[in-house]
Request: fold
Amino acid sequence: MDSRGVVAAEGRYVTTEGRDDTYSETLGRVAEQLDAEKVDHVRIESMSQESAREFLNEVIVKIAASLGITAAKVAALVADIMEMARSAGKAFSDAYRSSYERARRIKPYED
Amino acid sequence: MASAAESLFNEFRRRLSDNKELSDADRERMALELAKAIESEPVPTIAVIGQTGAGKTSTLNALFNAGAAVGHSRPTTKSADSFDFEISDYRGNKGDIRVIDMPGLGESIVRAQNLRELYREHLPAADVILWVHPVSDRMLEFSQRRVAEMFREELGLLADHLVFGLNKADSIYPHNWHHEANVPSSEQLKHLEDAERYFAEEMRRVLPRRSPFRVATYSALQYYNLARLFSLLMEAMPKKRRWVLERRMDLANFIDKVDPRLLAEVTGVGPAGPAGRQAPAREWILARMSEADLRSCLQQGWTPEEWWRRKGDT
Reply:
């Protein structure tokens, strides 16, 4: 327990300032923070994918031109990038979610 | 775990290798050229502005090195005068970041004038500008003046890439951070909201109206709200370069500083093991027991922990 607060018998998290949060309020705040982090991670992921897709799009066309590959031959690849962004996005979300869930697994408590 | 950008590139490589339209040689050359293009993309450059003690280094560590201190960073440019200005290649866990470490905004007018030259020379090279400010510091007048001077005229466009980070959320009045839960107390939360609102109002006044205003309150020390700060940095990056930053993201994990027992309460995931669910601290259990529960505990001869486990089993 933090030296600045104790859990009182009636279930309130009492601070040295004399005001307190209920235990459930504290738990609620942790849950909100976890949710907020999840939302931010999804935003980060989405911005990154959109940006990587644009980069890929440009680079592939340039590479094809420099290698003398006809536009028609890379057209399908370029078109795929849009769809790919969606499926990779889903894969990333799933991977993030599972690693997030793993991270939340509780380590053995040691007194 | 691969970054979102890497997942996309990997998926592309897989599709490229399956592509029947291209010859084996073309596929190989294309994959090789793509790898070169990805690796030759310049590292992200972040200008970090803030007074000494604002937490610039700990912020970088929390964003790009999972909270651990970087062993070394290689300076590429250092100012010859008394300013602490430095450009260095910061080695994060996921790759290098070029950091333009800007001095605090100084106190004297002469110094401020010189700083403006410094900003004019170096800020345009930055992908994103992170202005770190302690959230408790409400003396904004000087910073406000500097912001107004910096982001007008030819540097005005750079305001589009500016993010304000209000650090040290954990140390705001009345200094009663819930360390077990790793969240602010309700009193602190109110002060944090007020401080952020005040800061935003004051700074908005002096920035170009058309520029987006971005501010995140966080604690580098407690790993609190780092994802929020990072998402704003991403937003402020040039769109085509966002993936370069995300590829290097290695945020210190907020939950690492949450008491495992409390986290178990929140997530409903208890530690599995031969002994079954791990009991939380006794005072927490007692705080949640009714008189009837206590009586039943005494009658049965159970410890509070045993009561808690049994309750969880039913």
Remarks:
- The mean pLDDT of chain B is 85.
- Strands of chain B lie at 45-49, 73-78, 86-92, 95-102, 128-134, 162-167, 215-217.
